[in-house]
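hiii, so i know i said id send this last week but things got crazy w the move. better late than never?? heres the sequnce for the chain we talked about at the cafe, plus the structure i predicted for it. fair warning i was half asleep when i ran it
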Amino acid sequence: MSWRIAWPAGLTLAVILMLLFVSGCGKMPAATEKSWDQYLASVDVQYAYEAGMLIYDIVNSELGGRTSGSDAEHEAAEILYQEMLCIGLQDVTKDAFPVDRWQFNGASLTVLDPVGGRREIKPYSYASGGTDEAGITAELLYLGNGTMHDYDGVDVEGKIVLIDIDMYWDWWVTYPTLEAALQGAAAIINSTSGGYGMLNDDAMNSQDFVGPVTIPSVNISRNDASYLKGLLEEGPVTVNLIVDNVVEKGGTSYNIVGKIPGKNPHELIIIGDHYDAHFWGFQDNLMAVGLTLAIAKGMIDSGYQPERTLVFVLHGAEEYGAIDTRYDWSIGAWNQIFTVRPDWVGKALAYINFELPAYEFESSTYVASTPELYSFLKEFIASAPQPEGAFPDGIRDEGQMQTSWADNFSYNIAGVPAMHNGFLEDADREAYPFYENIYHSNFDLPDIYNQAVLDFNLRFYGALAIALDQDPALALDFRHQADWLEDAVDTGAFELAGLDLAPLLEEIAALRVAAGKVYEDLHSINSLFQDLRGNGDGPPAELWQQATALNRETLAIFKTFQDKLLRLDWEDVPIVGHQQPQDNILLLTEAIDLLQEGDVNTVIDEILWQIDGNREWISYSFSREVADYFIWQVFDPSNSDNLFWGAGRIVGYVDLYDVLQALMARYDQEKPDLSAEIAALEKALESQIEMLARLADEEARAVRTVREMLEAMDTQTVLAAVNEAAK
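okay and structure toks below
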């Protein structure tokens, strides 16, 4: 359900328009727009490009790579540190934090005594095992997609396995790598058959690994894979694989931090990105580095004096930074806000994150954020600098939930309201074609640079930072979170479970009312402040102090919501916790009904793979040891200190591995005995009903806590004081 303004009956259009004008709804105040005029006149998109390119050639291998704790990452950190000093940022630091070091220096794959000539193949390694200088000499075997079924009747002990992989639609590279290691293979080589790296047949792809350091695991192009498959069709093939790759504990990475001090040093606006990269990483993320530095330089060159301190952060170890965890990315950002500078929590009013900001993904763009920022962003977009020469359909303003796949999420769960530029999904929430073709590939190069897009982002997000800085009150609108909570409820699942949904819905409705009152007061405070600024006198200092006190309360409420209500599914998508058992109840009920009719095929083909947000898909194709490994990562106490931003975010799991294997063995059978499988699913259903009841109760109490905190805010006193000053 989307939020709408409920205008009182009888208001004419003219009166409504007058109210909008007087209150400032739908448009940034003129005083704020004026504040960014000098900034817009001072920014330099050419500098943004050149600043990003400062570290383009700072890589570890001839294929590129600037990975966590590596030599190249360290060298790049020093260059960026010096650049921050050069442009005039203050209090510049290299904030060190621990990472697992990934140093990939290169690899080679040589066919020994090939028929028809020799080809030099240069693989790219994942954050897995390496070899010694002599490498591994072994027979090469092609095993399809590398599932457990592909190993049936095949002896791979000590051999090197070649597979095809689609990491978008099928599974991450870690699964077939662990399967190969379990089966006794000495190494595994893959080429992408879909999902990523599909620009052309010379494209390669790399991703984070989310697993232990095990056998060497490398990627090659489809052209090279086709060459090897052709040789294998003619007879046995022996290869030598050398992988100069070290992944080890005890590394160090750096977040580079610089500041523009504000009048109020006790509040911050943070702007940032990451500087590590797979391959050459032009869009991901050199242009974001340039964008962050160019915004900082534009602020300094324009003489802008911020109300709060502006903090600029270039993060290390975003692409990867930790061994054997499901949450091995965004390690730099998580460390910065949780361990290096936890004092920023409660002071930082917002974090703006950049990814791939010089590419035109589609005809429009957007800002993704935490829902509490939707109202602020909608109002800002109405008056913001607009695209010129790019995004002809403009900026979408309907509000879009941020993802967990970038540094913003770590800040957000720490209690800093976060947002990122529109780099990931179109209006239908489908991933852009860029990801299938270029993302994390050897073709993320300067020839895909779009200056008009980078220039727009430079103007738009600099103005956004100024707008956030100019508002004294952090006007978070928790009504949008109430909408998110309500949209997450499936009444059918609660009815099937025999649970009373009313307590949760009543609390959500009460939250919406309380949130609306607080937001309207905060918005009015900001509008009146801007009127005072526009009159030239400026708001009295004591009013800023009162607004700062309100902001501390607002941030505490925001953090409470993140702690108690924001969860992740098994694909790392933000959810409300009850959604997982709720969806499982619907799926399990349907599966039981179908099995009672003897329809095994539909249950296998359409139902059970969706359990736990598609987690059970892995159970169809990999050994139990492999499937269980990823449950161990999340839930075993021995790995609990290795979860970073994912700690406590997944609510549970249903173990259907044995049931699935039994049902797959009965696929296409006529009238099989399914009593044992039905009983197992009924038991799983009972557990999910219990979980849904528990989570719905916890969520109702959490929503009540947030609502009571909102009701306790004394916004009226501050509003009255600002009104008095404005007279």
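btw The chain is about 45% helix and 15% strand. thought thatd interest u
miss u guys!!
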